[in-house]
Amino acid sequence: MSLSALAAGARNPAPFGIWEERSEQADMTRAVARAVESGGQLLVEAGTGTGKSLAYLIPAALRALTTGGRAIVSTNTIALQEQLLAQDVPATRLLLADALGEEAAGALRVTTLKGRRNYLCRRRLGPGTRPPGRSRRAGAALSPPRPARRPTGCWPG
Predict the structure, then answer these.
(1) E strand or H helix that includes residue 120
(2) Are 114 and 83 a contacting pair, CB within 8 Å?
(3) At 154, phi and psi to the nearest 5?
(4) pLDDT tens readout for residues 55-64
(5) Among candidates 19, 103, 88, 16, which has minimal Cα distance to 57?
(6) C or N: which end of the chain has fewer Cβ atoms within 10 Å?
(7) What's the sign of the alpha-carbon dihedral 75, 76, 79, 80?
(8) What is the DSSP string of 49-103?
(9) What pLDDT is recorded for position 21?
(10) Is 93 within 8 Å of 99 (Cβ atoms)?
């Protein structure tokens, strides 16, 4: 099923601009699908332009949709996270719509979680300081509704 979803790009390349079949991408898609199905682990190294994102998103999304489970994709950079959300997840939905139908592909839910370094916390803010450009009143809005249990507790900023 993963490969048929991947092959949908060749049948309908319009949403992707130029579409070219990549044997390395198909190989990686197969390997990821096997690892996902068996609950195993997989380490893959592939060069730029291989199509790694779709090769792991398609099998992960298929598994999540068919089992009702979740797939977690962890990235090292915010730039890749943004690429996945802006380009690769929508492309995955289009490819899955061709393989499974619009309704099934539309059921794919995606959310973003960023690491601790991307949240504002009291420890990093420092006692008695406010973020640049924030008034005392705006700074107060950063406080959680009730006191945090630990002074280093972090919350989205």
Answers:
(1) strand 120-121
(2) no
(3) -110, 150
(4) 999 999 999 9
(5) 88
(6) C
(7) negative
(8) TS-HHHHHHHHHHHHHHHHS-------S-HHHHHHIIIIIHHHHHHHHHHHH-HH
(9) 76
(10) no
